[in-house]
UniProtKB/TrEMBL annotation, chain A:
<dbReference type="GO" id="GO:0006606">
    <property type="term" value="P:protein import into nucleus"/>
</dbReference>
<keyword id="KW-0539">Nucleus</keyword>
<comment type="subunit">
    <text>Component of the nuclear pore complex (NPC).</text>
</comment>
<dbReference type="GO" id="GO:0017056">
    <property type="term" value="F:structural constituent of nuclear pore"/>
</dbReference>
<keyword id="KW-0813">Transport</keyword>
<protein>
    <recommendedName>
        <fullName>Nuclear pore complex protein Nup85</fullName>
    </recommendedName>
</protein>
<comment type="similarity">
    <text>Belongs to the nucleoporin Nup85 family.</text>
</comment>
<keyword id="KW-0509">mRNA transport</keyword>
<dbReference type="GO" id="GO:0006406">
    <property type="term" value="P:mRNA export from nucleus"/>
</dbReference>
UniProtKB/TrEMBL annotation, chain B:
<feature type="repeat" description="WD">
    <location>
        <begin position="213"/>
        <end position="255"/>
    </location>
</feature>
<dbReference type="InterPro" id="IPR001680">
    <property type="entry name" value="WD40_rpt"/>
</dbReference>
<keyword id="KW-0539">Nucleus</keyword>
<dbReference type="Pfam" id="PF00400">
    <property type="entry name" value="WD40"/>
</dbReference>
<dbReference type="InterPro" id="IPR015943">
    <property type="entry name" value="WD40/YVTN_repeat-like_dom_sf"/>
</dbReference>
<dbReference type="InterPro" id="IPR019775">
    <property type="entry name" value="WD40_repeat_CS"/>
</dbReference>
<protein>
    <submittedName>
        <fullName>Nucleoporin 43</fullName>
    </submittedName>
</protein>
<dbReference type="InterPro" id="IPR036322">
    <property type="entry name" value="WD40_repeat_dom_sf"/>
</dbReference>
<feature type="repeat" description="WD">
    <location>
        <begin position="169"/>
        <end position="211"/>
    </location>
</feature>
Amino acid sequence: LLDLPPPCGEGRPSSSCVFVVRKDQDIYIQTLRKLFNESHGIFIGLQRSEEEFAGKSRKTQLVQVSKNYRSVIRACMEDMHQAAVSARDPALHSQYSTQVSILSAMELIWNLCEILFVEAAVAGPLLLRLLDWVRLHVCDVDNMVREVLSSENPSKHELFWNVVDVFVLQGRMDEARHLLSKEASANPTSVNMCRILDDLMKKMPVPSLGNTQTLTEMELKWQHWHEECQRYLQDGTFASNSHMESICKILLGDENAILEKKELMTTWYHFLVTRLLYSHPTVKPMELRFYAQSSMDLFLGGESSPEPLDTILMAAFEFELHQVIKECSIALSNWWFVAHLTDLLDHCKLLQSHNLYFGSNMREFLLLEYASGLFSHYSLWQLGVDYFDHCPEYGRVYLELHIERIPLNTEQKALKVLRICEQRQMHEQVRSICKIMAMKALRNNRLGSALSWSIRAKDAAFATLISDRFLKDYCEKGCFSDLDLIDNLGPSMLLSDRLTFLGKYREFHRLYGEKRFSEAAKLLLMLMTAHIAPCSFWMTLLTDALPLLEQKEVIFSAEQTYELMRCLEDLTAGKSDKQKFQDDDVETMKVEMLRLALARNLARVIVKEGTLEGS
Amino acid sequence: DGTSCVSVCARCLAKSDGVISIQDNRISIWSVGDLGNVGLNGEYQGEPQLLCDIRHNGDVMDMQTLSANQRWEKAHYHVDRDASCGGAACTGVICSNPEIVTVGEDGRINLFRADQKDAVRTIDNADSSTLHAVTFLRTTEILTVNSIGQLKIWDLRQQRNEPSQIFSLTGDRVPLHCVDRHPNQQHIVATGGQDGMLSIWDIRQGTMPVSLLNAHEAEMWEVHFHPSNPDHLFTCSEDGSLWHWDTSTSVSEKPSFLHQGGRSTTYFSHNTINQSVVSAWLSNDPTKDRMEITNLIPNQTLSVNSLDILGPCLVYGTDAEAIYVNRHLFA
């Protein structure tokens, strides 16, 4: 997140602006990581789900996805709550508690969006869903309800009528009636009134979820019922009991009566739903905005101004999707919520391709932002990869840039990163990562590891580098290090010429050690004549030939000896006069010895080859 | 759960409903019954970046005692032990109470004893490449696999720092990531490689694997024979799958001793069991012997890094920071 100072105007001389950059702290909170991981699974499931289902079954599928997201939020809330309760440090406790309320608000908003946008509940079921929504989220009164219900004599409890009111306000008729029956049995004088009220509550028409009645039928029934309540009120049936009278007024949808119970409703959206329940139960989705605005105004009454949460909910009731997303982005500290919600709404085909000024659409923009945030985490970056995969326009570019910057502290992490790159044909990145790992290994003297990385990247140049290193070590120490590697190169020997030479050279030494001289000799010669050996190494090879030349038994044939001589002459002829002058005595002596040995060998072999067998 | 679950150990599942997992320097004991979490902050290898698998042949008490008492810092390092960036990751650990063997990215093999502060023995530069896993072959011999596709046997009784035998793959030197030995027949060894291939070796004969089975699409991180019924093998991989390899000859009727509870020998005599095993794993044509392979993960997403099995319980951990326990493996 950036906290920007006021922008420097164009006319002013460039003053230095200090940008305060803050890392996204949320990803490091332990309990939230469960949210990120589980929602990742749901996200992937959604992207992969085929759009073969059309119409109703697709909608059911999407609603299920939405419910899954919400249950993950709730689970996280539970964990966070536990953490808050058990935290001893007050600062930590307050941090967790804040998180709990943020998560609760997120679930509230998501639930409403699910009802209005994903499920797109129509008039009738819409009210039922909204009632469920309110019942689920306005829990401030739960304690009071529990207290009264668990007392010995509920009807005598001082908060008894409050609880009845709560039930009525939330449309929980059965529970209200149950309490009323207790009042009836405890207070014989009010039995009549209770019976009537009970009857009214029982008969109240509610929209049905199935297709058992049409809206018009329901409206008709409701009109009759409404008139019946009106009659009872006007007759003064409940005049002697103010509580029951107010309940009757609520049943009639009297705004003032409902508003009197402000503390029991606690929020303007509860007020909205109660209002709708008792004055317009067949409300259509598009009509919500008018009721919402007036409800908020009536409830807040000019005393307090709407909070961010209120603005967001209002935007939802007004079906202003983009406004909802925008407000949520501003209010929340990380992109998780808006990214996933927008993606879901996009799958519901509700977002037009609302192109932002740099070309990608809103869904992609939010997903990119969210995933980029994940990459700064040492282990959540793996989730980010999948999100980038599902951003068609810029996902790949973002991934390429981010994946190269993941710190590779262990080989296993590097292997995982490489696997991701290889699966997506990101060859540049594979090469660069293998090179980094190979260089690290080389610097730590792990030549085998370095070679294994070069093989993975099929990097011939690096393999050559490693072989040179081995050869250098050999020249300095006179023996090979890491024989287990060189002896077991296998087909990877062919990766680079230098590596092939190394393998073959070592084989020469092995053959020599096993006293298989003629094979060793043939190999040695081949190394030079087939130009597998680098020129710089020829002197060493020729010197290695010396002991073979000095053997009692003649090993090199005449042909081979001529070849050797030619190699020697090529080598010395290649040196300029200046070089020859700089050669020290050792060098010249070596050459001399070689010439002598070659000549002697030639002499012996001519004689040997000229001699007839058996004579 | 914390970070990517790198390693799990099911040792205590039968005894006390617990699962031990290692991630990010924390060894946690999870009670599978009620999901309570008892965390032990034992830094087993003293190295910040930590990947290891622990298999324990003792009981739970041993594990707890070990982790509470000892801490071997900088057991693995590159070049200069005390340089700040000199630490190397420890990639594998195996215990045979009281001995502990560790291997690492520095190609080093360490032998510790639970009651001794310093390493009993260290083989520096045992391997020029990274050692990825280690397991006991016999009480005095260990098996290691490395990143140039070699399987090595080390005899710890001998003082020389050379492996007693080296095996390697045919063809490309694909890195090997995991190794496990058959519980009853010690010459049968299974390894898993970077290309997801499962190799079965007979270490009595030859230097090349007996069979190569094309398995996963990415690195195979762990391979385990079922400890009490080695007709069954389990492998898990970076591609997010966990495979159950079943070579028991009668696939439809499972013998009763496979289920939780006591052994019953009414179905198979001892000889038959051995015969079926020998023919199964060492035969060159797995299709002839009706090997059944099942992927145990329905919706795979991220890598399965580690698994362990005990009796009918299977536990595995994934990169989605979750641990799964399946208590009815053969139901």
